[in-house]
């Protein structure tokens, strides 16, 4: 069970797959987080010549 808290209140609750399918705050956070991680890895690879 995941609880998504926004401004001190529970904005969403559910299992990971349910929250992703609902396309709400958790889905937005999840995709933003992993997009940033992929970009950081790509930047590190570019700097190291990989």
Descriptive key words:
50 residues; two-stranded antiparallel sheet; single chain
Structural features, described:
The structure is a single chain. This protein is α+β, with helices and mostly antiparallel strands and 50 residues long. It has helices at 16-22, 25-48; strands at 2-6, 9-14. Strands 1-2 form a two-stranded antiparallel sheet. It is elongated and about 45 Å long. The mean pLDDT is 86.
Describe the secondary-structure layout:
Elements: E1 2-6, E2 9-14, H1 16-22, H2 25-48
Antiparallel strand pairs: 1-2
Helix pairs in contact: 1-2
Query: Class by helix and strand content?
Result: alpha+beta
| Percentage of residues in strands | 15-25%
DSSP helix fraction: 55-70%
Poorly predicted ranges: none
From N to C, what is the helix and strand string? EEHH
Question: Can you list the strand order of the major beta sheet?
Answer: 1-2
What is the tally of helical segments?
A: 2
Extended strand count: 2
Average pLDDT level:
86
Radius of gyration: 15 Å
Largest sheet: 2 strands, antiparallel
Q: End-to-end span in angstroms?
A: 39 Å
Globally, the shape reads elongated
In short:
The protein has 50 residues and is an alpha+beta fold.
